[in-house]
Amino acid sequence: MVLSVIDVFAENFAFYKQYFGYMIKNPAWNNPLYMVFFICVATFIMELTLPRKLPYSPVGRKGFALDIFYVIFIDFLLMLFGFYAAAKAVEYIFTQTMGIFGVSDFLIFDITQLNGAVQFLIIFFVLDFMQWFGHFLLHRVDFLWHFHKIHHAQEELGFASTRHFHWMEYLVFKPLLFIPFILLNVPVSSFFAVYLWIGLSFTFFSHANIRVNFKPLNYLLITPETHYWHHAKNIPGKYGVNFASVLTVWDHIFGYFYYPRNKETPQLGVDDQAKIPTTFVGQMIHPFREAFGKKKKTSSKVKKK
Ligand SMILES: [Zn+2]
Ligand SMILES: [Zn+2]
Question: Ligand 2 centre and the CA of 280: distance in Å?
Answer without folding.
Answer: 17
